[in-house]
Amino acid sequence: MARGFRLLELLPWLALCALYVFLPELLPLGTQIIIMIIFALSLDLLLGYTGIVTLGHAAYFGVGAYTSGILAVAGWDGPFTGLAAGAMAAAVVGLVMGLVILRTKGLALLMLGMAVTLIFYELANHFQAWTGGADGLQGISVKPIFGLFEFDMYGKVGFAYAALVLLACLVFVRHLVLSPFGRSLVGIRENATRMTAIGVPVQQRKLIVFSVAAGIAGVAGALSAQTNQFVGLNVLSFELSGTVLIVLVVGGAGRLYGAFLGTPIYFAAQDILAKGDPVYWLFWLGLILIVVATFARGGVLGLYDSLVQRFSALYPAQLKRGNP
Amino acid sequence: MSSFLNIIVSIVFHGLAYAMVLYVISVGLSLTMGMLNFVNLAHGVFAMAGGYAALWIMKTQGTPFVLALPVSALLVALASIVLERLLYRRLYGAGELDQTLMTIGLIFMATAAAHFAFGPLPQRVDLPPAITGHFLVAGRDFPTYRAFLIAAGCVMFLALWLGIERTLVGARIRAAVDNRSMAQCVGINTSRLFTTVFALGSGVAALGGGLGADIIAIAPGYAMEHLIYFLIVVSMGGLGSVTGAFVAALILGIGDTACKILMPEVGAFFVYVAVFVVLLIRPAGLFGRAT
Amino acid sequence: MKMLRKITFGVVGLHALIVAPALAADQVVKVGMILTLSGPSASLGENIDRGAQLYFKQHEAELPPGIKVEIIKRDDTGANPDIAKRLAQELIVRDHVQFLGGIVFTPNAAAIAPLATQSKTPFILMNASTSNLTRLSPYIARVSYTQWQTAHTLGQWAARNGFKRVFIAVSDYAAGVDSEKAFEAGFAGEGRQIIGHIRMPQTTPDYVPYMQSIKDAKPDALFMFTNSGRITTAAVKGFAEAGLTQAGITLLGPGDIASDEELDNMGDAALGTTTAAIYSANNPRPENVEFVKLWKKAYGEDTVPSFMAVCGWDGMAAIFSAIKAQKGIVTGDGSIRAIKTWINPVSPRGPIAIDPDTRDVVMDVYINKVEKVGGKLVNVTMETVRNVKDQWKILNPQ
What we know:
The complex is a heterotrimer of chains A (324), B (291) and C (398). Chain A is built from 14 helices and no strands. Chain A is mainly α and 324 residues long. Chain A has a domain at 27-237. Chain B has one domain (2-223). Chain B is built from 13 helices and 2 strands, in the order H-H-H-H-E-E-H-H-H-H-H-H-H-H-H. Chain B has helices at 2-36, 43-61, 65-86, 96-118, 144-166, 168-178, 180-185, 190-211, 222-225, 227-237, 242-262, 264-267, 270-281; strands at 134-137, 140-143. Chain B has a two-stranded antiparallel sheet. Chain B is globular and about 60 Å long. By secondary structure, chain C is of the alpha/beta class. Chain C folds into 2 domains: 27-145 and 284-356, 3-Layer(aba) Sandwich (Rossmann fold); 148-277 and 365-395, 3-Layer(aba) Sandwich (Rossmann fold), CATH 3.40.50.2300. In chain C, helix 9 links the parallel strand 9 and strand 10 (274-277). Chains in contact: A-B, A-C, B-C. The A-B interface holds A 47, 53, 55, 100-101, 103-108, 110-112, 114-116, 118-119, 122, 126, 238, 242, 245-246, 249, 253, 279-280, 282-283, 285-290, 292-294, 297 and B 33, 39, 87, 90-91, 94-102, 104-113, 115-116, 120, 228, 231-232, 234-235, 239, 265, 268-269, 272-273, 275-276, 279-280, 283-285.
């Protein structure tokens, strides 16, 4: 359903197609960007729309990655079944964790989310026989997509596959945020007490969105396992939780397309700044973050909005309503 | 049996020393977060800066350890005032997301700067001979340095507790933590108070960084690597509570050490499970005020 | 007229004959180095890079005429197999490298292995130490070492030298477990016991309590493996502080725990540490004296090369030898064939060679002890074990 569909929304897809056609050597990078976008989209549901600030979202990415990876090694290596398995495992874990941690807010919620991810990291490190531990999970193979397209060295099939999954996730999330359910999430973010007063089951909704967001994060994780044909402990790292947060906020949270903007900007910045001296790219990233947090709160999309406002104030085409 | 007792004594002693370092570093964060409601993830940067400053002063000026510590703490406190006025102030009203982002940015910049200035390897610490070595108590020998840390931590706790509970400034701080707008109505210059508390917190953290430099090594990744521990102490203890941070540091320091020694299989999980359990039962922390 | 045309063509033809080969022979062989250059393990990647660059600068002139080598460096930022794999893909597909090299962490190497096979790119490992890595692709060769060469040899040495009761403490992750098993396999035998095992979490704040419980068990020696860098420094200091040195307990470990560049940081706590290492900066071999001199000139009088630096040096040497052996016409299969049979008697660390059956390095392992020489802490070699192969692959044939 293309509710309120705007032509501008075709832009990311045009960009992806252009990448495929004109810059095929960047496809492996493109695939990683797509995976991060899906991950950031899932975080946007939580952070941007519902106002749940978490530094522990990597837990669900990791659960998705290891689930589909372990299944693939054990012989269940269909691509779409792998994604489904990863999504479901992550959603279930998200539901259980959500039941526990969504009763808190603020710093407590932040800490609990982090604690969950850290616990999972240690578990994955510990159960080496299952996960490969620090050496990583090897031997993941994936059956050809639709029985036709085998994963190739140049990353073409991986890229197209990831783009397809991104499309599906976007359609789903977009539908969700434009629905009454999605609107109520924004209400919960703005004023949960009032929402309860008008009869919205706030806790239940928060739990549902937490589980859904975890599931989509699981899809991203499973996709990562399949396109890399490898899973390392870094899928459960604190760094990953931090990176997806940065990516989303730089693009603009609560805007759906913030993820689409923030991710390429982050990766591009990293590519450019790290070429000079890899160590000091952290310095520039830190500076960018401080600038964004201080002067550009809504991320790039927020900047765009305020620019549009300024420009339309320059040459107002209409008189203000009510004035002669 | 005696061997087991030995191990317990060792765990308590060393856990306590580690706990004291954690405490001195984290108490400042508890105060600033409690008072300013500001998610300052970059708190570890001040501890790291204190460590680097103290070691650098010792190496280049030949200053003795006990003098280098307060000097470096003062320097870092002054620098933090500058940072507070320039940067932190702008985000006092902003949501926790933006504060998180800004402070993460600060950590990154500080990490890169430390790497640039001092290289990637951890800093070597030359402790003064007075506190190295061992001393005997009841037939066991204990490292003097650790005993020194325990003493320093307790003194710091006492000083802060007395300062907060028994002085006028402390009363004002407590008032501002409890109810900022009311405190302003009563005529307390909260803006100046914030800066004071921020500088105090950062200075004490710097002291902790220098004190604990031999246990928690000073390296560029310091602020990020130990962030989780500082946050756990603060959230478990309760924001704005000097006593809470102390108790939480004790639980963490001794408990973490105990579990890693006695039950190495599950030792790594203790810390995370502990904070999980505490925050579920008391989301505001052990000594925090529920909002 | 005909004469003029003939002469013109002749001159042009001659000119083409002279100039063309020179133009055609101008070839750049690209080497992609994927290392960890940022984050807590930055010093590891930095050392390998420095060693490789040093070899490159010293030996550039030895390349066949018209051949140039270009090193493209990339940072995988840590144990991030997805990033490492993507970087390798880009190096192969975008930059058209003819060699891949480097890698600090095993998972990064494992993720890249299928790419090396698919693209027929020789992949030279310069640090990642899990034994089975060379089996993951016929294009992988390793010049660094495995725990089953160092820790295992140490186990055998300890057995030969009268140690009867040994306690084992390793960092709780894959490499630590690997090291533990390697030592045990080498040490096992009549009258000898491992009296205890501890796996220490990597986030351990304080090693002294571990050390005290180990002291109470009264072993002859403690075998320890910890992640390089800060953790090892803390552990070694903990060893001394808990009084184990005074109690007569020897600290044993693979060379990783007494890396030459870290000795200064560890201070006197490290004295007496006995390791099985692939290198000592103190080695009096003329090739090493020369190497250390070059190093200090390039990177500073007070810096010291470590085993990682030597692995970078040797890795680049292997690549250069392959280029020279193929007289500049470099192919993937040709390169790996050349490297498989590579013998290098003049490496700074000692004579090394690649075992053609396993594509893993064969080298001398040194039993080093940390002593104070001239006021500085150095690794002094007590014994040399010659031509050590990776035991794990011998015990686990394919």
